[in-house]
Design goal:
alpha+beta, Immunoglobulin-like, 4 domains, four-stranded mixed β-sheet, 16 helices, 13 strands, globular, Thioredoxin_domain, signal, redox-active center
Length: 488
């Protein structure tokens, strides 16, 4: 397997990459959960996490399981890519393609080990399962059998590597070892071409994402001020070796994550730390190749929509219309904008009462007793390092609003009760603490589109969601936002 850091002389020219749009079509998934009767009170739904390359976001789809254990769903997907299925706290990776009709079968008590496939991409996914088992075995050999041992070591490397070159050396060495393992695995097995291409792209863009996240993730994990840690410009020499204009690399969701980081990097490099939205949009519109231009522009516009900066979107719609060449990409962003701006609502929509979802019901039950108070909700888990890293900042925030009408509601997820109680004491989490059931968390995950934690939500004094993706406790701007809600 080639080393990661290729010389520029052997890199393919960006102009050689195809400019055609990725195909978009529906994916149809049906399935059966064996022995569901025993688990339906604690795990009554399947969650699918679907990366959206157009919006630069991960969407959460909750599928309720019928009493006989069957379920079915459908969703639009752009390009072949991995998605994630979660049931009963167990996560599985599945590769899907636009137009797929796929059937899944697994046992409720052990979905990871019993998952089987019929229909489209079956061989690809059986290859993925077998490779995943072999990779996990190799990871245990290297890092030990402790749960999440590899992930923990990688998190410690981010936290403890104050030297950017030392961190880069660590992740590149790991990439080379992973690549050598993959090359040996490929040579020893007859594999689906789709799986082989996915596995190579997945390793490559996982490395790229790790390298790009380090400059902002290290200060957070090490609990130091962001502006006190800087990486030299030479650190980013790796960027040219991870092209963003190659649609074939979008097989892996790590490509989406890298695009998101690259967009922020490019804007900061060319425009500085602070810049108006119009400048960033103009910068992305100047990119020379259609695929990366489309993705960067659509991601940037959707981020503005998500952050409710609708006036900035309105002022720059002409740039979107003129520069995004993929019609589906363009229309998807425009639809998101119209929905956020309440433009062209369906006829007589106001005459229909909106149905109360299961997520609404769970949220109401959790927050009803705190009416007339601002509620800051913190979704966290005992196993989540970023969650724990924010708790000292949360303690400072609680002190800031002591005696005020602000409730800090800490919702523990996917954690064992004994460990959850011990962690509350260890981290001094004073406030309202609730350990969510799997069913409660899956309902709230769909409502707030939670695909990872920590996640924060602000509820106003009237009991309405003020921000479904609020700032983290360590963000200095959060204080002003809570004060604004108190004043209303």
């Amino acid at each position: 397997m080639r080393a990661l850091l290729l010389s520029a002389a052997i890199l393919l020219s960006l102009q050689a990459f195809p400019q055609s749009a990725l195909r978009t079509d529906s994916v149809y998934i049906s399935g059966k959960v064996n022995y569901f009767e025993k688990y339906k009170d604690s795990a009554n739904a399947v969650l699918f996490y679907i990366n959206d390359i157009v919006l630069g976001d991960e969407l959460t789809l909750r599928v309720k399981i019928n009493n006989d254990g069957t379920f079915k769903t459908a969703f639009l997907k752009t390009g072949t890519q991995d998605i994630y299925m979660e049931y009963n706290d167990k996560l599985s990776t599945i590769i899907v393609s636009p137009g797929d009709h796929m059937q899944l079968l697994f046992n409720a008590g052990d979905p990871e080990q019993t998952l089987s496939f019929k229909g489209s991409n079956s061989q690809t996914n059986y290859d993925l399962l077998a490779y995943g088992a072999a990779f996990d075995k190799e990871s245990i050999r290297i890092y030990g059998a402790e749960p999440n041992a590899r992930a923990l070591k990688n998190n410690f490397a981010v936290r403890d590597s104050s030297n950017p070159d030392a961190y880069k050396s660590y992740v590149v060495t790991q990439f080379k070892a992973d690549s050598a393992f993959l090359a040996n695995y490929i040579s020893a097995h007859a594999l689906s071409p789709t799986f082989v291409n996915w596995a190579k792209a997945d390793l490559k863009y996982r490395l790229a994402s790790n390298l790009m996240r380090y400059p902002w993730l290290h200060p957070r994990y090490a609990q130091i001020k962001d502006n006190s840690f800087k990486v030299p410009d030479s650190y980013y020499k790796f960027v040219d070796q991870f092209p963003v204009n190659d649609p074939s690399q979008a097989l892996t969701s790590n490509f989406n994550e890298y695009i998101a980081e690259y967009r922020l990097y490019l804007a900061a490099k060319e425009l500085g730390k602070q810049y108006p939205a119009s400048s960033a949009i103009a910068l992305f519109a100047r990119q020379p190749f259609s695929f990366s231009k489309d993705v960067l522009l659509c991601n940037a516009f959707y981020k503005l929509i998500h952050d409710k900066e609708l006036e900035a979107v309105k002022q720059n719609l002409g740039v979107l219309e003129k520069n995004v060449t993929d019609t589906y990409f363009k229309n998807k962003v425009l639809a998101a904008y119209r929905q956020a701006a309440h433009i062209a609502e369906p006829l007589a929509a106001s005459s229909f009462k909106k149905a109360i979802s299961e997520g609404d019901s769970v949220l109401n039950n959790l927050t009803a007793k705190y009416r007339n108070k601002v509620i800051y909700i913190d979704f966290w888990g005992t196993w989540c390092s970023p969650c724990r890293a924010e708790m000292p900042y949360s303690k400072v925030l609680r002190a800031k609003f002591a005696g005020k009408d602000v409730v800090f509601l800490y919702l523990g997820v996917q954690s064992k009760e004994a460990e959850w109680k011990a962690m509350i004491k260890t981290l001094d989490i004073k406030g309202e603490n609730v350990l969510l059931s799997n069913n409660q968390f899956s309902a709230l995950s769909e409502k707030f589109q939670i695909s990872g934690i920590p996640r924060y939500v602000l509820i106003n004094k009237q009991g309405k969601v003020a921000d479904g993706n609020a700032r983290r406790p360590g963000d200095k701007l959060l204080v002003a936002e809570i004060q604004k809600l108190l004043a209303l």
